[in-house]
Amino acid sequence: MAEFFVDRLSLSAPVGYTLAALIQCVLIVALIGVAALLFIWMERKISGRIQDRWGPNRVGGKFGWFQTLADGMKLLTKEDLAPKDAQVILFRLAPYVSFAASFSAYLALPFADGWVIAPMTMGLFFILAVLGLEVFGVILGGYASGSKWSLFGAIRQAAQVVSYEVPLAMCAVVPVFLCGTMDLVAIGEKQAGLFTNWLVFHDPFTFVIFWVYFTCTVASVNRSPFDLPEAESELVAGFLTEYSGLRWSFFFMAEYSSMLLVSGLAAILFFGGWNGPLPIFHCIGWAYQQSETTWRLTGYLANLAGCVNFLAKAVLGVTVMMWVRWTLPRLRIDQVITVCLKYCVPLAAICFVGALMWQTLAWPSPNDLVPVTPAGKAGVREQWVLQQAKNAGRENLVGVSGPATDMPVTDIVVRPLEQEGGEG
Amino acid sequence: MTTADDSRILEFDVRTEEMLINMGPQHPSTHGVLRVVLRTDGEIVFRAEPQIGYLHRCAEKIGENLSPRQWVPYTDRLDYLAGMNMNLGWALAVEKLLGLEVSEKVGHIRVLVAELGRIASHLVAMGTYGLDLGSFTPFLYAFREREKILNLFEDVCGARLTYSYMLPGGVMADLPPGWLEKCEQFLTELEPVIADYHALLTSNQIFIKRTAAIGVLSAEDAIGYGCSGPVLRGSGVDFDLRRDGELYCTRMYQGYTYQVIVRKDGHYPKDHDYPPVPPEAVIGDCWHRFYVRMLEVVQSIDLVRQGIERYRQAPGDCGVPVKMTQRLPKGEIYLETEAPKGQMGFHLISDGSAIPWRVRIRSSSFCNLSIVPILCQNCLIADVPAVIGSLDVVLGEIDR
Question: What gap in Å lies between CA B211 and CA B190, rounded to an integer?
Answer without folding.
Answer: 25
